[in-house]
Amino acid sequence: MKRLIRIIRDLLLTALILLFVGLVAVRLEKPQEAMTGRARVVDGDTLVLDGKRLRLVGIDAPELRQICQRNGQDWPCGTEAKGYLSGLIGDATTTCEADGSDKYGRILAVCTVGNRDLNAAMVDGGHAIAFGDYETEEAVARQNRMGLWAGTFDAPRQWRQTHGGMDEMPHIPEGWLDTAISRVGGWVENTKSKVWND
Q1: Which residue of 8, 87, 91, 95 has the fewest C-beta atoms within 10 A of its own C-beta?
Q2: Residue 103 domain flag
Q3: What is the pLDDT of residues 162-185, one digit of tens each?
Q4: What is the pLDDT of residue 179?
Q5: Are 110 and 94 in contact (CB under 8 A)?
Q6: Residue 15 belongs to what domain range?
């Protein structure tokens, strides 16, 4: 019986190690796609660059037709979000690092102008909310009552659901696979040390 338990333990440990090595190999093989050029702003979280539609990952901006409230008045928060992103980009060259795409075929990307992270700047300025990332920037914008936080609004996802727009889930933060691999690696190490000490 003791021998059977050791065999099962060794098989499980071997399977975990192979899984870990496989995850590392997949991460190393998948190159990130970089695009640079003049971006066209579609809305507060969507760009077109090199003819490709890009969705700023980790954020969610109001839809173009979305109306929010500020000081008891309607204000076109969706149009303002697009204008804010256009202002951040101006005539500068935009660089986007892409890693995957969403279910609508849009490339998920972190975009920069110079050293400025546009995704973070949209949330920090209160013109987008955190959507899987950028929670720190959202907390600062909320505390300072910037943009959307200066009034009331429906979360963009909620607005889309009630107005027949595309539904999407919050984005998985950049580096999620590295974090998962690190956690699995730590778990394998702990398990290995427990097994070998038995």
Answers
A1: 91
A2: yes
A3: 887 666 666 654 454 554 554 455
A4: 44
A5: no
A6: 1-28
